[in-house]
């Protein structure tokens, strides 16, 4: 197999594009894809202050590396979830990368913000950890961005993440979620940062290849709470199809974006207001996070 | 495990409904589901002359058995595809059932209608057999129904068939197919019979259980051309999800039917007219079947 750019020995096959690259040309291909996604969806300009959310895994650290290479104005934010062992190793991976690159990393913790860790919060509210965690992350990342003067929250969701979410939303006909699924969600309120996903066309495998070639010290370990999550099930199902029919995932995603206006017709107008307790943006009187806090407190007292 | 109706020993588990039945009560459950689907979608009345398409497999023969039990006015039609061995065994299964039940079975053959069998037609037109076969079947079944005074073409498509088609249409955003996918497609032209699928909520496994309990002499063999078909791939992917999350397929199908009007907005008005060569209904000047015939002839001459 020859690299389709330099004709040297290829070592990375990108089946969805029927392409193969040598390590160096693959890095160029990856950076070009990231830049193309940013520009095609007008995600952000090169001077805008970006807040990149990093977990310490291959996707977010690869994106961090790519954004630095491409010269964007990026600050990383890591959230310590308080999961014994796993959270320490995640934080260490982010710190190691920041030190190596001399890059700007901020760290906040769920325990400092909420008084309890994610596992404890899930236990107290009798919710699935992943559901609580997703909600808390969206809330804290947005608040940190808005308060810190960042225009944009950037996340490392890759193509596999996006098509798994898409499949889940379609299997259950979550038309509201479908109407809001997009690699670029603009800000619709002064207290709401724009949210973008520059890796949305790149597979998990491509992000892994980039991280390995660039010798990024990422954490390979999955979150211990992720096991058995439906997302993994949807990824496995889609991998089964992709294996026999390469390019299906990307066509699925691109076709959805082309046709997604059809979901707008069923989506009611969502009115945004400020939470009466914390002042953050919500569609209800009291935001989901304040209700979660109340619930956690009530259970403790009860 | 106890039968949820008679409390006797259950031997058939229906995981999508968290239910289990003894063989006799399962048969009653199956018949009730078929009847409910027919009535809920106003598919046909008990006196209407129905043309049921039978392949000799578990689905179509189970449906034939069910429609006879429920007292519908059903005539079966089997199409001999001319696939060596497989087609003989398929025809024999249909004939055995008809003889046993004293039921009305008509048999036509692709070779008599087109001069060549399905494999030969696929070869001559350089098309995938499944694509040619599907087209030929729809054409011949409709023509036979309309010319014979049958109001309705009934097919044995089960839930697995329908969700596999739905997933395929969504993965490739075939909005035209999505707009037309429904268990009851009404007639929109005097030369077009109504098409219905009374088994659309029943899984392949449930149809198999019904056929086994009722001792229906079905052909268990798959069509030799089906191997590697994308439909099988989609079924495997959906089975993987259903295994961990029973009821997903049914929810996927029902959610789609609830929301399917959203696909109508993107679907252009399709104007039906009569083929200038054969007089059958088409959306173009010459119908797909006459073009297929021409192509087959041209290749032979060429």
Please characterize this protein's 3D structure.
2 copies of one chain form a homodimer. In chain A, 49% of the residues lie in helices and 11% in strands. By secondary structure, the first copy, chain A, is of the alpha/beta class. Chain A has a single domain (43-270), classed as HUPs (Rossmann fold), CATH 3.40.50.620. In chain A, the strands form 3 sheets. A 6-stranded mixed beta sheet of chain A has the order 5-4-3-6-8-7, with helices on both faces. A two-stranded antiparallel ribbon of chain A has the order 1-2. In chain A, helix 7 (159-171) crosses helix 10. The longest helix of chain A is centred in the middle third of the chain and has 19 residues, at 129-147. In chain A, 39% of the residues are buried. At the A-B interface, helix 10 and helix 11 of A face helix 10 and helix 11 of B. Chains A, B: It comes from Thermanaeromonas toyohensis ToBE. Chains A, B: Residues 51-220 form the tRNA(Ile)-lysidine/2-thiocytidine synthase N-terminal domain. Chains A, B: GO terms for molecular function: metal ion binding; transferase activity; tRNA binding. Chains A, B: One of its GO terms (cellular component) is cytosolic tRNA wobble base thiouridylase complex. Chains A, B: This is TIGR00269 family protein.
């Amino acid at each position: 197999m020859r690299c389709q750019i330099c004709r040297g020995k290829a070592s990375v096959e990108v089946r969805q594009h029927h392409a193969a690259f040598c390590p160096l040309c693959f890095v160029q291909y990856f950076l070009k894809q990231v830049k193309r996604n940013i520009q095609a969806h007008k995600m952000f300009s090169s001077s805008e202050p970006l807040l990149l959310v990093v977990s310490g895994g291959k996707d977010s650290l690869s994106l961090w590396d790519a954004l630095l290479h491409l010269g964007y104005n990026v600050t990383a934010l890591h959230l310590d979830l308080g999961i014994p062992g796993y959270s320490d190793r995640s934080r260490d991976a982010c710190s190691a990368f920041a030190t190596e690159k001399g890059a700007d990393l901020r760290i906040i913790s769920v325990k400092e913000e909420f008084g309890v860790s994610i596992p404890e919060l899930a236990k107290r509210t009798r919710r699935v950890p992943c559901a609580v965690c997703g909600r808390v992350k969206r809330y804290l990342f947005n608040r940190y961005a808005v308060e810190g003067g960042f225009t944009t929250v950037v996340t490392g969701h890759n193509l596999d993440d996006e098509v798994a979410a898409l499949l889940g939303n379609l299997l259950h006909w979550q038309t509201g979620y479908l109407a809001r699924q997009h690699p670029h969600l603009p800000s619709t309120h002064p207290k709401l940062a724009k949210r973008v996903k520059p890796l949305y066309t790149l597979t998990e495998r491509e992000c892994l290849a980039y991280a390995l070639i660039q010798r990024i010290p990422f954490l390979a370990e999955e979150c211990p709470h992720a096991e058995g999550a439906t997302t993994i099930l949807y990824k496995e199902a889609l991998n089964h199809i992709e294996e026999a029919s390469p390019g299906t995932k990307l066509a699925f995603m691109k076709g959805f974006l082309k046709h997604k206006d059809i979901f707008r017709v069923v989506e009611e107008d969502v009115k945004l207001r400020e939470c009466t307790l914390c002042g953050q943006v919500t569609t209800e009187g009291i935001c989901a996070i304040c209700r979660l806090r109340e619930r956690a407190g009530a259970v403790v007292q009860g």
